Amino acid sequence: MSSRRNRIADRVFKLWAIGCTLIGIIMLGIFLVNIAIDGLGRIDWDFITSLPSRKAEKAGIYVALLGTVWILVLTAIIAIPVGVAAGIYLEEYGKKSRFASILEINITNLAGVPSIIYGILGLEVFVRTFGLGKSVIAGALTLSLLILPIIIVATREALKAVPKTLREASFALGATKWQTVSKQVLPAASGGIVTGVILAISRAIGETAPLILVGAIVYLNKPPQTPLDQYSVLPMQIFNWISRPEQEFSVNAAAAIIILLLVTFVMNGIAIYLRYRWQRKVKW
Amino acid sequence: MSHKLTTQDVHVWYGSFHALKGVTLSVKPNTVTAFIGPSGCGKSTFLRLFNRMNDYIEGFHMGGEIIIDGRNIYGKRILVEELRKEVGMVFQKPNPFPKSIYDNVVYGLQIQGINDKHVLEEACETSLKQAALWNEVKDNLKKSALALSGGQQQRLCIARTLAVKPTMILMDEPASALDPISTAKIEELILELKSQYTIVIVTHNMQQAARISDRTAFFYLGELIEYDKTVNIFTNPKEEKTQSYITGRFG
Amino acid sequence: MSQIDNPVHNIKSALDQMFDLVTMQLTKSKDALAGFDKDLAREVIQIEKRVNGQELQIDRVAENFIALYSPVAIDLRFVLAALKINNNLERIGDIAEGISKYINETNSPLDATLMEESNVMPMYEAALRMLKEVHEAYEKEDTSIARKIFKSDDYLDHINAEAITNLTHAANGDASKLSDALYIISIIRKLERIGDQLKNIAEEIIFYIEAKVLKHVKPK
Known about the structure:
heterotrimer; B: 6-stranded mixed β-sheet; 10 strands; C: 220 residues; mainly alpha; 7 helices
C-alpha cells in the first residue's frame, strides 16, 4: 500500500520538476518569439552594415557590432594569458605559500563583485590614471578584469580535473615541473580551459554597465581603427534604441538583440562542442 | 656483492603523523624485493622515498639516509630529475598519458631533449619488446594508449619506464587493478626484467610476493617487522606478527 | 610456460631421481642376495644415506612450493601426491637396506634349495619390475600402467601366502636350515611390503592425474 503511495509521490515530484524546468524554457521561448516577431523582419545586410542614424529605418549596427568585436578580441588577448597563467600558478605552483592563499581569497572575492564596481575601477585606473580615455583598450582592460576571475577559476577547475596519476607518471620519468605542466597537464586540461574561456568571453559580450562608466559612446559614426579610438558596443546600442520613444527604434533594438543573442549562442555552442570533443578524446 | 640500495634508520613524518619509524634494510642488485603489510603500514611511503615521489606531499619530511648506488639521494647535490631517470616507477593504476602509444614510450626521452626520430623509434621498439607488448601494438603505434586494455596499459607504463633506461624499478601494486591473466603476464615480466634491473615491489597480494620476490619485507604500523628471504618469510617467519599477517590471522 | 610450471618441474625431476636411487638400491640388493655379495650389500646401505637426503630435499621443495605458489587443482594434487610418493619410495629404500643387512649378518650364502623352493628370487624380480612400471607410469603420467600394479601385486601376495608351506616342505625337518629359512621368510615378508608401497604409489599417481581416490576402496 505504502509503495503505491510512494509511486504516486514519485510521479507528482517528477511532474513538478518538469513544470519548474518548463517555466524557464517557456519564459525564454516567449521572449525569443516576441523578439523574433518584432525584429526578424528588420534584419538584412543593410541593417548590419549601416552606420547609426537619427532615422530609425536608416540606422544600422555596423559601428556597435565592430566595437563589440574589437572589445572581444582585445579582452581575449589580455584576459586569456593572464587568467590562464594565474590559474596555473595557483593550482600547480603556489599551493603552499601564504601569498598564494591571500591571492586565492581575493580572486574568489573578485568573482562576487558587481560589474558596475569594475566599471568604476576601470574609470579610475585605466581612463583617468593611465590616461587611456574613452578608448577601446580601456574598455577591454575593464572587461578583462571582470572576466579574469572566471577564467582563473575555470582554469583551476580544469587543471584539478587532470588526475594526479598523470602528473606522477610524468615526474617519475624525470620530467621537471614545467615540463609536466606544459606537456601533460595543460594539454589534458585544455578542453576545460577553452570552455571556461569561451563562457567568460560570452559573458563579456553582454556586459553594459561597466562600459557605460568607462565611456562606450552611444552615437558614433565610425568604428574604431586603433585600440585608442572611441567605440560603441551592441548592448549600448540596444540600450540606446530601447530608451527612445519611437516605435521604429524598438524594432531596431529587437533586431540588434537577435544579432547579440546569435553571437552568444554561437560562442556557447563552440564551448559545448569543444567540451564534448575533449570528453570523448580523453577518458580516465 | 655490494648493495644497490641501503636505507639507514629512515623516518618519515606527514605533519605530525609518524609514518615510518626507523627502517633499515638493504637490497641487492638484480633481485626482486617485495614489501608487504596491511594498508597504512608505510610500505608505499617507503617505496616512494626511493625516487623522491613523496617530495610533493604536504607536510612531508624525513630523517635517516637512503643510499642508491653509493649516493645519498636526499643529499644536497642530488637533482631529483636525474634520480628519477635512474629509479623508474610503475604505479598501481595504469596511467598512460592520453596520447599515442608511441608518444607515451618516448616521452621520457623527449623531455631529456632527445628528438632524433631514429633514436626514438628504436627506443620505442626495444622498450615495447622488453615489456612484452611489441607484438600486440606494433601495427598501431599511433593509436591512443587509452584504447588499450588495462593489462596492456600497465605493460605500456612499464615500457615507458624502461625507455629511460633506469637501473632500478619501483612498482607500487602494479597488478592490483588487473585481472588474473594480466597479472600473471606482469609477474612473468617482472621475473624477466630481474636479470637487468633491481626491482622493488609493493603488493597487497601475498601470493604475488611469494611467487616473484627473492626477499620480502613485512611492514606494520610504520615499522619494518621482518626482512628475510621470501622462502623463509613464507615457511618459517621469525616474528609472531609476520606469521599472523601472512596466515591471515591478523588483529 | 607459466611461472608455476617451473617449481612443478623441479619437484617432478627431484622425485624422478628418487625413483632412480631406490631402483638402484633394490636392484643392487637383489644382486647382492643372488650372488651373496657383501660389498654390494654395503653399497646399498651407503646409498640409503643419499635416499634419505633426497627425501628431505623433496619435502623441503614441496613445502616451499606450497608456501610460495599456493597451488590448486592439479598442481595441488601433484604436490600432495609427490609428498606421499616420496615417503613410500623412502620406505622401499629402507626395505632394500634391511635386506642388505641380512646379507651382511649371514656368514654363508643362503641355502640354494630353500631359495629355489620359496620363489624368493622370482618375487624379487617381480617387485623390481613393478617398481620400474610405477616409475614409468609416473614419468609418462599414464594411469593405465599404474593400474597394472594392482594385478602384479597379487602375484607377490600369492608367493608370500605360500612361503611358509613351501619353506617347511623344502626344509624337510632339517634343523640346520632353520636359520636360512627364517631369513628367507623375512625377506619375503619385506618384499610383500614393497608391493604394498608400490600399490600406494600407483594410487597416488592415479589420484593426481585423474583425481580419483582409490584408497580404502575394496576391489570387487
